[in-house]
Amino acid sequence: MKYILILFALFVSATVPPSIGDMIFNATFEDPPHTLNSLVATGGGVDQPSATIGSVISRSGVADFSTQVASLEPAGQMGFFYAPTTSAGLVLLSWDMAMLSFGSGGGPDTAAVSISSDGGGGGAMYMFWQTDNDFQIGGTAAAAFSLGQQDHYEFLFDLDNDRYDFAFNGVALLTNQSVNAGFNVQSVVFAAENLQSPSYAVDNFRWEIVPEPSTWMLISTGCLAAVYVRRLLETKAAGR
Question: pTM to 2 decimals?
Fold first, then answer.
Protein backbone atom coordinates (compact mmCIF):
# COMPACT_ATOMS: atom_id res chain seq x y z
CA MET A 1 0.00 0.00 0.00
CA LYS A 2 2.86 2.42 0.64
CA TYR A 3 3.64 2.40 -3.09
CA ILE A 4 0.12 3.62 -3.86
CA LEU A 5 0.65 6.63 -1.61
CA ILE A 6 3.95 7.40 -3.33
CA LEU A 7 2.29 7.28 -6.78
CA PHE A 8 -0.27 9.86 -5.71
CA ALA A 9 1.98 12.08 -3.59
CA LEU A 10 2.51 14.67 -6.31
CA PHE A 11 -1.22 15.34 -6.60
CA VAL A 12 -1.73 16.76 -3.09
CA SER A 13 -2.77 20.38 -3.58
CA ALA A 14 -2.42 23.20 -1.05
CA THR A 15 -5.64 25.00 -0.14
CA VAL A 16 -7.02 26.96 2.79
CA PRO A 17 -7.62 24.97 6.00
CA PRO A 18 -11.11 23.44 6.10
CA SER A 19 -13.75 24.89 8.43
CA ILE A 20 -16.69 23.37 10.27
CA GLY A 21 -19.44 22.56 7.79
CA ASP A 22 -17.15 22.41 4.74
CA MET A 23 -17.85 19.77 2.11
CA ILE A 24 -14.38 18.80 0.90
CA PHE A 25 -15.59 16.27 -1.70
CA ASN A 26 -19.04 15.20 -2.89
CA ALA A 27 -18.39 13.04 -5.96
CA THR A 28 -21.38 11.30 -7.55
CA PHE A 29 -19.68 10.65 -10.93
CA GLU A 30 -22.69 11.88 -12.92
CA ASP A 31 -22.56 13.37 -16.40
CA PRO A 32 -21.42 16.21 -16.30
CA PRO A 33 -18.67 16.67 -15.22
CA HIS A 34 -17.98 12.99 -15.89
CA THR A 35 -18.63 11.53 -19.35
CA LEU A 36 -20.21 8.10 -19.66
CA ASN A 37 -17.75 5.38 -20.74
CA SER A 38 -14.78 7.76 -20.48
CA LEU A 39 -12.11 8.32 -17.88
CA VAL A 40 -13.56 10.12 -14.86
CA ALA A 41 -12.81 13.83 -14.72
CA THR A 42 -10.18 14.84 -12.15
CA GLY A 43 -8.88 17.82 -10.24
CA GLY A 44 -11.68 20.28 -10.88
CA GLY A 45 -13.55 20.59 -7.60
CA VAL A 46 -15.59 18.84 -4.95
CA ASP A 47 -17.36 16.60 -7.49
CA GLN A 48 -14.17 15.03 -8.90
CA PRO A 49 -11.29 12.95 -7.51
CA SER A 50 -7.93 14.69 -7.24
CA ALA A 51 -6.23 12.16 -9.53
CA THR A 52 -6.54 8.73 -11.11
CA ILE A 53 -4.07 6.19 -12.45
CA GLY A 54 -4.98 3.57 -15.05
CA SER A 55 -8.56 2.64 -15.92
CA VAL A 56 -11.09 4.53 -13.80
CA ILE A 57 -14.13 4.83 -16.09
CA SER A 58 -17.57 6.39 -15.67
CA ARG A 59 -20.08 3.55 -16.15
CA SER A 60 -23.80 2.97 -15.82
CA GLY A 61 -25.75 -0.25 -15.27
CA VAL A 62 -23.04 -1.58 -12.95
CA ALA A 63 -24.02 -4.18 -10.33
CA ASP A 64 -27.19 -2.97 -8.58
CA PHE A 65 -26.30 0.75 -8.80
CA SER A 66 -29.08 2.89 -10.25
CA THR A 67 -26.69 5.78 -10.98
CA GLN A 68 -23.48 6.42 -12.90
CA VAL A 69 -20.40 5.22 -10.99
CA ALA A 70 -16.61 5.25 -11.07
CA SER A 71 -15.56 1.79 -12.22
CA LEU A 72 -12.03 0.84 -11.11
CA GLU A 73 -10.96 -1.64 -13.73
CA PRO A 74 -7.64 -3.52 -14.01
CA ALA A 75 -4.79 -1.17 -13.03
CA GLY A 76 -7.25 1.54 -11.95
CA GLN A 77 -6.59 3.68 -8.88
CA MET A 78 -8.41 6.79 -7.60
CA GLY A 79 -7.28 9.31 -4.99
CA PHE A 80 -8.90 12.18 -3.09
CA PHE A 81 -6.51 14.66 -1.42
CA TYR A 82 -6.81 17.83 0.64
CA ALA A 83 -4.08 19.91 2.27
CA PRO A 84 -3.60 21.41 4.75
CA THR A 85 -5.59 19.02 6.89
CA THR A 86 -7.71 19.78 9.91
CA SER A 87 -6.39 18.33 13.17
CA ALA A 88 -9.41 18.87 15.45
CA GLY A 89 -13.14 18.25 15.48
CA LEU A 90 -15.06 15.66 13.48
CA VAL A 91 -14.51 14.40 9.93
CA LEU A 92 -17.09 12.25 8.15
CA LEU A 93 -16.12 9.99 5.22
CA SER A 94 -18.66 7.88 3.35
CA TRP A 95 -19.08 6.11 0.02
CA ASP A 96 -21.03 3.38 -1.78
CA MET A 97 -19.09 0.47 -3.21
CA ALA A 98 -19.67 -2.85 -4.96
CA MET A 99 -17.02 -5.49 -5.51
CA LEU A 100 -17.48 -6.89 -9.03
CA SER A 101 -14.70 -9.44 -9.46
CA PHE A 102 -11.29 -10.38 -8.15
CA GLY A 103 -8.19 -10.56 -10.34
CA SER A 104 -6.96 -13.86 -11.76
CA GLY A 105 -3.25 -13.07 -11.90
CA GLY A 106 -0.51 -13.67 -9.37
CA GLY A 107 -0.26 -11.84 -6.08
CA PRO A 108 -2.99 -10.74 -3.68
CA ASP A 109 -6.36 -10.37 -5.41
CA THR A 110 -7.60 -7.90 -2.82
CA ALA A 111 -9.27 -4.52 -3.19
CA ALA A 112 -7.94 -1.91 -0.76
CA VAL A 113 -8.59 1.62 0.46
CA SER A 114 -6.21 3.75 2.53
CA ILE A 115 -7.13 6.74 4.69
CA SER A 116 -3.93 8.61 5.47
CA SER A 117 -2.78 11.64 7.43
CA ASP A 118 0.10 13.90 6.39
CA GLY A 119 1.72 11.56 3.88
CA GLY A 120 0.80 8.17 5.37
CA GLY A 121 3.33 6.07 7.26
CA GLY A 122 2.20 5.44 10.84
CA GLY A 123 -0.77 7.72 10.27
CA ALA A 124 -2.48 5.46 7.73
CA MET A 125 -5.54 3.23 8.07
CA TYR A 126 -5.90 0.38 5.57
CA MET A 127 -9.00 -1.61 4.71
CA PHE A 128 -9.34 -4.68 2.49
CA TRP A 129 -12.05 -6.59 0.66
CA GLN A 130 -10.82 -10.19 0.86
CA THR A 131 -11.55 -13.01 -1.60
CA ASP A 132 -13.49 -14.81 1.17
CA ASN A 133 -15.98 -11.88 1.16
CA ASP A 134 -14.60 -10.54 4.41
CA PHE A 135 -14.22 -6.75 4.77
CA GLN A 136 -11.33 -5.89 7.10
CA ILE A 137 -10.15 -2.66 8.70
CA GLY A 138 -6.47 -3.28 9.33
CA GLY A 139 -6.44 -6.90 10.44
CA THR A 140 -9.89 -6.79 12.04
CA ALA A 141 -12.93 -8.31 10.34
CA ALA A 142 -15.61 -5.61 10.31
CA ALA A 143 -18.34 -6.80 7.90
CA ALA A 144 -19.25 -9.29 5.18
CA PHE A 145 -20.00 -8.33 1.57
CA SER A 146 -21.30 -10.03 -1.58
CA LEU A 147 -20.03 -9.60 -5.13
CA GLY A 148 -22.21 -7.23 -7.12
CA GLN A 149 -23.95 -5.75 -4.08
CA GLN A 150 -23.97 -2.00 -3.43
CA ASP A 151 -22.94 -1.35 0.19
CA HIS A 152 -22.62 1.92 2.11
CA TYR A 153 -19.51 2.63 4.20
CA GLU A 154 -19.37 5.46 6.74
CA PHE A 155 -16.53 6.57 9.01
CA LEU A 156 -16.74 9.28 11.67
CA PHE A 157 -13.33 10.45 12.93
CA ASP A 158 -13.13 12.26 16.28
CA LEU A 159 -9.78 14.01 15.87
CA ASP A 160 -9.87 15.58 19.34
CA ASN A 161 -9.86 12.16 21.00
CA ASP A 162 -8.09 10.01 18.33
CA ARG A 163 -11.13 7.80 17.83
CA TYR A 164 -13.41 6.63 15.02
CA ASP A 165 -16.77 4.92 14.51
CA PHE A 166 -17.71 2.75 11.50
CA ALA A 167 -21.17 1.99 10.09
CA PHE A 168 -22.01 -0.52 7.33
CA ASN A 169 -25.29 -0.10 5.45
CA GLY A 170 -26.57 2.21 8.19
CA VAL A 171 -25.67 -0.08 11.09
CA ALA A 172 -22.93 0.95 13.55
CA LEU A 173 -20.54 -2.01 13.76
CA LEU A 174 -17.48 -0.41 15.38
CA THR A 175 -17.55 2.45 17.89
CA ASN A 176 -14.91 4.31 19.87
CA GLN A 177 -12.03 2.65 18.01
CA SER A 178 -8.57 4.15 18.43
CA VAL A 179 -6.30 5.70 15.80
CA ASN A 180 -2.73 6.91 16.19
CA ALA A 181 -2.27 10.07 18.26
CA GLY A 182 -2.49 13.16 16.08
CA PHE A 183 -4.29 11.36 13.25
CA ASN A 184 -5.91 13.61 10.65
CA VAL A 185 -7.37 12.95 7.20
CA GLN A 186 -5.34 14.18 4.24
CA SER A 187 -5.95 11.51 1.58
CA VAL A 188 -8.30 8.67 0.66
CA VAL A 189 -7.02 6.28 -2.02
CA PHE A 190 -9.01 3.51 -3.72
CA ALA A 191 -6.68 0.90 -5.21
CA ALA A 192 -5.60 -2.68 -4.45
CA GLU A 193 -3.02 -4.37 -2.27
CA ASN A 194 0.44 -4.40 -3.88
CA LEU A 195 -1.09 -2.64 -6.90
CA GLN A 196 -3.03 -5.73 -8.01
CA SER A 197 -6.38 -4.56 -9.42
CA PRO A 198 -9.63 -6.43 -8.93
CA SER A 199 -12.61 -4.62 -10.42
CA TYR A 200 -15.04 -2.64 -8.26
CA ALA A 201 -17.33 0.38 -8.47
CA VAL A 202 -17.51 3.47 -6.23
CA ASP A 203 -20.21 6.12 -5.97
CA ASN A 204 -21.37 8.94 -3.68
CA PHE A 205 -17.99 9.68 -2.12
CA ARG A 206 -18.36 12.35 0.58
CA TRP A 207 -15.69 13.96 2.75
CA GLU A 208 -16.95 16.65 5.09
CA ILE A 209 -16.12 18.54 8.24
CA VAL A 210 -19.06 17.85 10.52
CA PRO A 211 -21.10 20.94 11.45
CA GLU A 212 -22.82 21.69 14.74
CA PRO A 213 -24.97 18.82 16.04
CA SER A 214 -28.34 20.54 15.48
CA THR A 215 -27.50 21.11 11.81
CA TRP A 216 -25.96 17.70 11.23
CA MET A 217 -28.95 15.86 12.71
CA LEU A 218 -31.09 17.49 10.00
CA ILE A 219 -28.83 16.63 7.06
CA SER A 220 -27.38 13.24 8.05
CA THR A 221 -29.05 10.01 6.96
CA GLY A 222 -26.54 7.77 8.75
CA CYS A 223 -26.75 6.33 12.24
CA LEU A 224 -23.46 7.97 13.25
CA ALA A 225 -25.25 11.24 13.97
CA ALA A 226 -26.56 9.72 17.19
CA VAL A 227 -23.07 8.44 18.02
CA TYR A 228 -21.67 11.96 17.54
CA VAL A 229 -24.25 13.54 19.86
CA ARG A 230 -23.53 10.88 22.50
CA ARG A 231 -19.78 11.53 22.16
CA LEU A 232 -20.35 15.30 22.49
CA LEU A 233 -22.39 14.87 25.67
CA GLU A 234 -19.77 12.54 27.17
CA THR A 235 -17.02 15.07 26.44
CA LYS A 236 -18.97 17.93 28.03
CA ALA A 237 -19.81 15.81 31.07
CA ALA A 238 -16.10 15.09 31.55
CA GLY A 239 -15.36 18.81 31.42
CA ARG A 240 -13.12 18.57 28.34
Answer: 0.82
